[in-house]
């Protein structure tokens, strides 16, 4: 009899616990949620998206609304959508025990804007991935023009995404090497504002200070890019302080181990 009472007591306690847990979960599921706490991790201060713009996206797509209950919130669906956004590198959506939910986002870092023929206009990011232009932000980054010399008028963004040979033909690998170096160098990031491509001179850098052209030529390897910028730095450090910014028409870096500067 005593054993029976013990078993009955345990069953009662277990059943009561389960009932309380179910009731608690149902109460939590019905609780109304506030807006998410959004944390944007922006690379190098280049803002492509704001908290307000991201939240507006969720409202527009009905992934969130005011006074939404916890049970209605589809965390995985929200996370997958945000990760698929053009401006986003990674996203993490999660709920905390205090019933607050969070969205942690790291945005991408465009380092070059490709302004080709026709409607071709896109970014390359710091991972050598192509990006469409953002409807939210137009960051001031290094612009590449003149690509109609190597890019067919029929070439479109979708043609380039997964076609490495076409990327090479369109000089995107060389554009990436130049822009990556410029982006990571404080002086040249401020000094070089545009790069124009011509069949005769290759890449021509347009500086912010000075009216000279910097004939860079090709950028077939990272070492080639490093060597050419070292030569340019030498010229800036050893010649410009004595001759001035306005004396030269062009600085030619195309030739190995030498700089050819043309005066006006």
Strand order, main sheet: write it out: 6-5-4-7-8-9-10-11-12
Secondary structure class reads alpha/beta
For the CA atoms, what is the radius of gyration?
Answer: 28 Å
- End-to-end separation in angstroms reads 112 Å
Question: pLDDT below 50 for ≥5 consecutive residues: which ranges?
Answer: 18-29
Shape: elongated
> In percent, how helical is the residue content?
25-40%
How many H/I helices?
9
Work out the count of structural domains. 2
Organism: Brumimicrobium aurantiacum
Protein name: Cell division protein FtsQ
Descriptive report:
- Helices cover 37% and strands 25% of the residues.
- The protein has 264 residues and is an alpha/beta fold.
- It has two domains: 37-107, Roll (Ubiquitin-like (UB roll)), CATH 3.10.20; 110-263, Rossmann fold (3-Layer(aba) Sandwich).
- The longest helix is centred in the N-terminal third of the chain and has 29 residues, at 2-30.
- The protein is elongated.
- It starts with a helix and ends with a strand.
What secondary-structure arrangement, pairings included, does this model have?
Layout: H1 2-30, E1 37-41, H2 51-60, H3 75-83, E2 88-95, E3 101-107, E4 110-115, E5 121-125, E6 130-132, E7 142-145, H4 157-160, H5 164-169, H6 172-184, H7 186-191, E8 192-198, E9 202-207, E10 213-217, H8 222-238, H9 240-243, E11 248-252, E12 260-263
Parallel strand pairs: 1-3, 4-7, 7-8, 10-11
Antiparallel strand pairs: 2-3, 4-5, 5-6, 8-9, 9-10, 11-12
